[in-house]
Amino acid sequence: MSLSYKKRIATRFMLATAIIIAVVFTTVYFIVQQTVYQNLDNDLSFEANKHINEVAITETNVHFINKDEWEENEHREVQVNPVFIQITDASGQIMDKSPNLKENQLPFQNHEIYEGHFNTKLNNRIIRQIQIPVKKNGKIRAYIVAAMSLDSTLMVLKNLQFTLLILFPIILIVLFFISSFLAGRSIMPVVSVINTTNQITKNNLNERVELPENKDILFDL
Hints:
Layout: H1 5-50, E1 55-57, E2 62-64, H2 73-76, E3 83-89, E4 94-97, E5 118-122, E6 125-136, E7 139-149, H3 151-186, H4 188-199, H5 217-220
Antiparallel strand pairs: 1-2, 3-4, 3-7, 5-6, 6-7
Helix pairs in contact: 1-3
């Protein structure tokens, strides 16, 4: 079924706008995603680096000097966004960990494939993790592993994604009707020309097409 000229204009405008909106929405989503991950990574780096000076390294053992740190609420209680801390030796063997880990442990990344912050799982829940080497005499002797839950971050991104997906078709539908209205207003001078010329016959040659105010292509026509 062929569309009217007005609807063809509206459809083409809507398709062009759809591409622009899709690019804008995608850009917004990835900017927000990058921002929330960056904030989370900054918090993780702060937490991990805060504990480096609290690590005591001996020939046979690696442990935290100040055990009172584990009495802080952020390590002792399950919070909305708890911080999990773990210390391992150079081979990945667990030497100490925060009480909120209980019987669980954070996964160890081999330093040869370690690439900074990364996502992993703890009790089937996605977490964000960082692993910082602790050196003594220029040699890696231990690792500080810090992690935070990604639940709130993923919820924000999921809600944003859902909102953008809902808004996309709504905006396009509204734009289609608006563009159809504007297209109809735009071609009204052409319709006027058609109506006037249809009234001109050999018996009615005094009819004249009303010239538009603007001297544009319709004026020339």
